[in-house]
Automatic annotation (TrEMBL):
This is N-acetyl-gamma-glutamyl-phosphate reductase. The gene is argC. Signal peptide: none annotated. Keywords: Amino-acid biosynthesis, Arginine biosynthesis, Cytoplasm, NADP, Oxidoreductase. One of its GO terms (cellular component) is cytoplasm. It comes from Candidatus Accumulibacter aalborgensis.
Amino acid sequence: MIRIGIVGGTGYTGVELLRLLAQHPEVQVVAITSRGDAGIPVATMFPSLRRRVNLKFEDPAKANLRNCDLVFFATPNGVAMEQAPALLDAGVRVIDLAADFRIKNVAEWERWYGMRHASPEWVEKAVYGLPEYHRAAVRNARLVANPGCYPTAVQLGFMPLVEAGLVETDQLIADAKSGVSGAGRKAEIATLFAEAADNFKAYAVSGHRHLPEIQQGLSTMAGHPVGLTFVPHLTPLIRGIHATLYARIKGEADFQQLFEQCYGGEAFVDILPPGSHPDTRSVRAANVCRIAVHRPQGGNVLVVLSVIDNLVKGAAGQAVQNMNIMFGLPETEGLAQLAVLP
């Protein structure tokens, strides 16, 4: 059994990790930390985990995380860069669900996240954990930077096109919408029920923290820098991301076939039939990205629709997928859950 620790087990991604790992046949969660809730049984805070998770939250300073095979950091930005290096030096493998190790340009990261990076030497060593593109590197990684939710939906939607060089990459557009759980489990005016319900708005139009992450990934795929306009929106949903992606065509191809061939062997990317319109509830609680490809009026702009559950394929599910790859397990192990309807 793989011995697992979770740092930061009280947020939405933390409890989603617990939900998935509690059903995983090859792992044993041995430690869950929370500085503010140490000593409280996990199932007291999250009754959905009763009779499945019998641990108590521990103070991270006292938890025996070095006895784990792998530790997940489901913490705010800035925590893993302080705490992960000691575990890595002790031989523990780490998956960080925050942004601490995603952006290779440390100065760029510091500019977007507003803090000095505590362990820049590990940034270069970290593997960006988008399995559909970096699977081979993830397999041997000691430290995996789990992608953000918006970056997952956007990169998977654009990947076949930019890799093939079939679209203009200087003016890509990503118009993305997210449910309120993407903001995390915290008290914040913008995500209060009375503020978010019956409402729909764009935010961070001048620049969102996920923009440099998406540009870095797409530039790697394209082999040169890309230009991207990324506009996120907050929707009155709990879960889900819907990304509508626009790209100007510069080379003719059977685009439906291109996507089907690119993702034909992928367990967690589903290319829908021509004319489909994926919705967020078709992926709710499932580790899958559903994609549809459109060419409106046969014109020169391609429209790609990409949907994920931000807490699963956009966070905890993708982290478990990366764990499976790192330990040589079937990639689908513990991730066979179907989407929840209605």
